[in-house]
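Data deposition worksheet. Section B asks for the primary sequence of the deposited chain exactly as it was used as input, without tags or linkers unless they were present during the calculation. Section C holds the resulting structure in token form. Section D is free text for depositor observations; keep each observation to a single sentence. Incomplete worksheets are returned to the depositor.
Section A, Depositor: J.P.
Section B:
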Amino acid sequence: MTSEVDPLLGDGDATGLAETDAFRSAMSRLPAGVVVVAVRWRGLDQAMTASAVTSVSLDPPMLLVCVHADARLRDALDDVDTWTVSVLADDQGPVADWLSSPGRPAIGQLDRVPHERAPLSGAVRVRGAAAWFECRTAQVVPAGDHDVVLARVLAAHEGEPDAGSLVHLRRRLRPLR
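Section C:
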């Protein structure tokens, strides 16, 4: 038996919104690059894995990243306006897993991640990443359970020429070359 989809309400309820599980499942078919967003806040390095990041503008250079509204790193972005994005290379799945682990410690969370300090923001960038960006927050827009953080790109660097990338597809991390 096939279910009918209401042309006005979609597959959701009376609100007209898609069901959460159906939305999550459908979005899992869209490959997304995997990055680490990091900020130096109150003398500590805070970092998290993200897959909702994209280029917004070339002139001026801007990108956006989506951060869960109640994430520790989101709190840091209220106080600090410069931060980094490390585009993870195809062999950095363990870094992505660790920095997306719930309950990881606030202090020393980067002890097991090879990194260096970025010169403009003071935040860390992941060593061996495919690319890095240093950013300054331009605007934060609430969007459901996440906030969209729009940023001006202060600096952009590529990693090794033969580095692949890590993507999130169908709820799994996958190397891509």
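Section D:
The longest strand covers residues 131-143.
Residues 53 and 65 are 4 Å apart (CA to CA).
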